[in-house]
């Protein structure tokens, strides 16, 4: 919280790596975690004479992002952004400049606020430097290594308007945007692998004043860091101004351990990247048919899916709302809806999806929807305890067997002595003749009663327990 009378202003630049098979301008694999410098070729190494060829799939995904953000898809061009850095072997980055593929747009947040989108443009990623010795930063390092596998990986940079006014709101924006990137299939959203990286522009002002001077905090790679860095930076700027100082426009680094930002480089004037049109690529103007094809391929976005599921919950608790977010985030909402349609209690379906399914989320794709429903119905009917149902789900996820087979193999016969007693009581009343014959010593009738109990409990009763109960009543 800033002191009374102060307001922070935040605009985010989010870079997302696109989930294409190959890189942006060459056929090298776009894959995280490969042996360094194995997915490289003359194009992504920037060797003289090599020529870029645009990856059409990257354009599809950029358009999908734009459509999901209500942007206008516009005729666009590619530019060279010139600067030197060892992880960028061409000494320029191919990016979009004054004519981006996606112009304008907005993103509505769960709290009802709307954040405007300035642009979402295509560009290529750089390689990755690793600085050894010292703190892991270039300053004070003994030596540095460069991996060019990432060089030329397609990126979309999404630039928001300076519309956010708290770190919590900025975090909510980043989370919602991440959900959209995953839902469009554009990104896997894995921040820890650098699939989504954020720069936060932060300024402060006295309420009612125009925009203050901003600082840009580079390379935030978790929602938590984003929120902490913004709060720290806004506090720093307010203290600076209140102490008679002036905020300089600069690029700052976030130190996760110290919990503070520090100067990386000062922007005295706009950096001059000598942008010029990339002469080796033609302009990009997706026609109406191409745009329509992408629009038709888009499913419902997370906000809409969340609303659909929310409508099925009856007075949801805070925990259920949290579970709802997890479920939508992981894309399990269809499974939960299917369970609710099959008369599973919505709260139970949500809880099992947000916990047990989420814990093995990479296996859920192979899960037969019927198995999820069946397990939950068994739990709901009291055939499985909660603990047993969780264990069954886990097993079903791992081995793909049917829940009933798993429960039987595990010997789960969750019929309480009380309910067995009750069922046997009902059967005696329903079959007086059979009961009399059993009482008179016809042991074959025990089999008959076991069959009846099994039918009523869908096979979950323990045969010996039934016989014991019958004997006790004889
Ligand atoms: P640059 O290319 O130098 O980073 P941009 O004009 O692309 O500059 O702006 C980057 C981001 O900074 C945008 O998200 C924008 O909303 C945000 N921004 C611009 N002015 C301010 C400000 N005064 N305070 C906070 N954010 C700002
Ligand atoms: Mg910037
Ligand atoms: Zn290559």
Shape designation: elongated
**Rg over CA atoms:** 30 Å
The pLDDT mean sits at: 93
Strand-residue proportion: 15-25%
The number of distinct β-strands equals 15
- Measured as a percent range, the helix fraction is 25-40%
The topology string of helices and strands comes to: EHEEEEEEEEEHEEHEEEHHHHHHHHHHHH
Oligomer: single chain
What does this structure look like?
This protein is α+β, with helices and mostly antiparallel strands. It folds into three domains: 6-296, no CATH class; 300-409; 417-473, Orthogonal Bundle (Arc Repressor Mutant, subunit A), CATH 1.10.10. 39% of the residues lie in helices and 18% in strands. It has 15 helices and 15 strands. Strands 1, 2, 5, 6, 7, 10, 11, 12, 13 and 14 form a ten-stranded mixed beta sheet that branches. Strands 4-3-15 form a three-stranded antiparallel beta sheet, with no helix packed on it. The N and C termini lie far apart (75 Å). The model has no long low-confidence stretch (mean pLDDT 93). It binds adenosine-5'-diphosphate (ADP), magnesium ion (MG) and zinc ion.
Structure described in brief:
With 474 residues, this protein is an alpha+beta fold. The protein contains 15 helices and 15 strands.
Secondary-structure blueprint:
Blueprint: E1 6-17, H1 56-68, E2 72-73, E3 79-82, E4 92-95, E5 102-103, E6 106-108, E7 114-124, E8 128-132, E9 143-147, E10 154-160, H2 167-183, E11 196-206, E12 215-220, H3 223-242, E13 250-255, E14 260-266, E15 276-277, H4 288-297, H5 302-310, H6 318-330, H7 333-341, H8 346-359, H9 369-380, H10 386-399, H11 403-409, H12 417-430, H13 432-439, H14 444-456, H15 463-473
Parallel strand pairs: 12-13
Antiparallel strand pairs: 1-10, 1-11, 2-5, 3-4, 3-15, 5-7, 6-7, 7-10, 8-9, 11-12, 13-14
Helix pairs in contact: 2-3, 5-6, 6-8, 7-8, 9-10, 12-14, 12-15, 13-14, 14-15
The chain binds adenosine-5'-diphosphate, magnesium ion and zinc ion.
């Amino acid at each position: 919280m800033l002191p009374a009378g102060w307001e922070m202003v935040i605009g985010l630049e989010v870079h997302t790596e696109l989930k294409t098979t190959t890189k942006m301008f060459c056929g090298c694999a776009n894959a995280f975690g490969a042996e360094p410098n194995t997915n490289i070729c003359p194009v992504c190494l920037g060797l003289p004479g090599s020529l870029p060829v645009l990856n059409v799939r990257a354009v599809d995904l950029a358009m999908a992002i734009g459509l999901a953000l209500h942007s206008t898809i516009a005729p666009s061009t590619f530019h060279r952004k010139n600067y030197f850095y060892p992880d960028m072997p061409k000494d320029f980055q191919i990016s979009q400049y004054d004519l981006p593929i996606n112009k304008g747009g907005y993103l509505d947040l769960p709290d009802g606020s709307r954040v405007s989108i300035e642009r979402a443009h295509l560009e290529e990623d750089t390689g990755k430097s690793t600085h050894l010795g010292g703190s892991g930063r270039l300053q004070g390092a003994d030596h540095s290594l460069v991996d060019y596998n990432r060089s030329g990986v397609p990126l979309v940079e999404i630039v928001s308007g300076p519309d956010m006014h708290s770190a919590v709101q900025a975090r909510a924006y980043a989370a919602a945007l991440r959900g959209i990137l995953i839902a469009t299939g554009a990104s896997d959203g894995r921040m820890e692998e650098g699939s989504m990286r954020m720069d936060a522009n932060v300024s402060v002002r006295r309420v009612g004043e125009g925009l203050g001077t901003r600082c840009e905090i580079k390379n935030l790679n978790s929602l938590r860091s984003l929120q902490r860095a913004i709060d720290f930076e806004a506090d720093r700027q307010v203290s600076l101004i209140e102490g008679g100082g002036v905020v300089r426009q600069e690029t700052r680094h976030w130190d996760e351990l110290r919990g503070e930002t520090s100067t990386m480089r000062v922007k005295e004037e706009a950096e001059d990247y000598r942008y010029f049109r990339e002469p080796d690529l033609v302009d990009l103007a997706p026609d109406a048919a191409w745009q329509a094809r992408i629009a038709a391929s888009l499913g419902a976005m997370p906000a809409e899916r969340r609303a659909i599921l929310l409508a099925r919950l009856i007075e949801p608790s805070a925990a259920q709302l949290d579970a709802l977010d997890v479920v939508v985030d992981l894309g399990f909402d269809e499974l939960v809806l299917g369970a609710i349609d099959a008369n599973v209690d919505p709260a139970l379906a949500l809880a099992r999806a947000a916990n047990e399914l989420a814990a093995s989320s990479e296996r859920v794709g192979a899960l037969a929807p019927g198995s999820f429903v069946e397990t939950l119905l068994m739990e709901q009917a009291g055939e499985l305890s909660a603990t047993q149902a969780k264990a069954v789900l886990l097993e079903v996820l791992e081995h793909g067997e049917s829940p009933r087979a798993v429960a039987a193999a595990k010997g789960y016969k969750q019929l309480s002595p009380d309910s067995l007693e009750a069922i046997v009581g009902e059967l005696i009343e329903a079959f007086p003749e059979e009961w009399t014959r059993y009482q008179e010593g016809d042991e074959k009738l025990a089999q008959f009663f076991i069959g009846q109990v099994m039918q009523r409990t869908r096979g979950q009763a323990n045969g010996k327990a039934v016989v014991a109960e019958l004997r006790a009543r004889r």
